[in-house]
Amino acid sequence: MNKTMRAAPQQSSAEDRPDAAPASNFLRAIIAEDQALGTYGGRVVTRFPPEPNGYLHFGHAKSIILNFGLAAENAGTCHLRFDDTNPLKEGVEFEQAIAESVHWLGFDWGPHRYHASDYYEVLYDFAEWFVAQRLAYVDSQTPEEMRATRGTLTEPGRPGPWRDRSPAESLDLLRRMRAGEFPDGAHVLRLRIDMASPNINLRDPTIYRIRHASHHRTGDRWCIYPLYDYTHCISDALERVTHSICTLEFQDHRPLYDWIIERLAEGGKLERPLPHQHEFARLNLTYTVLSKRRLIELVRDGHVDGWDDPRMPTLVAAKRRGFTPEGFRLFAERIGVARSDSWIDMGVLEDAMRDDLNARAPRRIAVLDPLKLVIDNYPADRSEDCDAPNHPQRPELGRRALPFARELVIERDDFMETPPRGYFRLAPGAEVRLRYAYIVRCTGFERDADGRVAVVHCEYDPATKSGTPGAEARKVKGNVHWLAAAHAVPAELRLYDRLFSVPFPGAQGDAGDEDHDREDEQDAGASYLDDLNRASKRVLAGLVEPSLAGAAGGERFQFERHGYFVSDFHDHFPGRAVFNRTVSLRDSWSRPR
Ligand code: ATP
Ligand code: MG
After folding, report:
1. Of the listed 165, 292, 400, 556, which one is catalytic?
2. Which of 28, 213, 457, 498 has the fewest CB atoms within 10 Å, i.e. the most exposed one?
3. What is the pLDDT of residues 557-582, one digit of tens each?
4. Which of 481, 500, 518 is the last residue of a domain?
């Protein structure tokens, strides 16, 4: 599993379909085949089924882009269905955020917004039908007894004492369960399939449990709740979904998915053609964690500043970080869709964001760590405009004026008192071009009381102004950016880096340890917290060019030589400039650090 990919999509091994297409689009191939065969009469209906118990993460983005994308490519529809079967953990706050994130990624479900809880009544009717058919029974064993008779991966299970309970007795108990006569855990409803099946999912799976809990949508109407495996396939079938696309961990659940809806179709309860489940590899991304449980922990225990902390791999955080929906779609296209698990390097996502932003982010100047520079032969009472393009390759984005004056600021590390060989920036006696302005020569510097360099002195050559005739005649190697001290606007610059300092936080990664109905969520490796990158957030008091003071929240820029930045949605407003770094200009993590 710990094989990481940087760019090319991983190819799947030969598959159960003889004409298996390349991994990057095997789902496209399956749909094309169904379209050609007329399996669904030309309909393509997919769905994205989040559980409203947390915020969406980058893995969900892959699933959203896939499901909505496949529907769109086939003039079909994609449903947004909240899989709200666990009243204890779910809420409307999450539903709202999930819907917003799907919209943000650029997708719309139209009128097809559903809830699993919309189907509680019909799910329950079907449960009574299963009981009447002797295909389900109420089991009154304790959870321990049920575990003991369930068998293991290598041993078959055994029938429990209630397996042959009469339908009449089961029906009576089921109705009393629903009526609230029993405490949590007293009974469960199980399908009657095969206790000896090699597939544990078919060993009489539980489909209803008693849970005296209020649900955010159905209130106290129910005290029994259906489980995921039962709810999901029926919801798909009721919505006439054609292609039910999910992650690989559900592969072993597919026989149960099919068993349930086949029986109901045979019984005339569901219409054919039935949906089919297809599995793809979940997204595993290095230097982060994509597990709701861990994301909840990071927020709850204050390791980050909330769900939308720009370091989080959530979509609300991505937006605040300045990541773009287009960048996510580019990323999804580049990584493709495989049928076996692999890891994707975070650099692949960052590169997608860089490539998208490079094409469209206007260029601006920011000085992160200002050092004063005085041009001694420039008149104190003068200032002039320098002309800078908003984008080096896209003249249609226009140009802007940068005020130039005697007193400027440059980056502190663009000056060195005793430079090493190959340092082409400012040093005593050295010449550089002030980008979009003049060539200057360093004539000296001053220190402050602590011995730190406080002011750099230069002289400029008036014949070298960028853009004027003959200005480029004299060549210099160094090219540094600057701002006029009197015009620059103070700004808070937040530099974000990867949340974890190692590719596989907690060493084992966390793929595959999620289970919808797992109650005993043991922490598989709390040590992932030890791998948090302590330098993942740095806040600098810098200066930005005057035009940025008027930026609205959420505007994206390239700050030349520093990376892509976005004005912060919450904290940036007139009178306070706050910019978050989305991503640096180059991948600094691919080099040894
Ligand atoms: P987690 O595993 O992080 O707790 P989840 O799978 O329980 O998340 P759901 O709300 O059930 O979260 O997920 C909704 C959909 O998103 C499901 O179809 C699921 O398969 C898909 N999904 C979840 N995680 C990933 C991932 N890492 N890569 C691709 N798809 C994912
Ligand atoms: Mg899940």
Report:
1. 292
2. 213
3. 999 999 999 999 999 999 999 999 99
4. 481
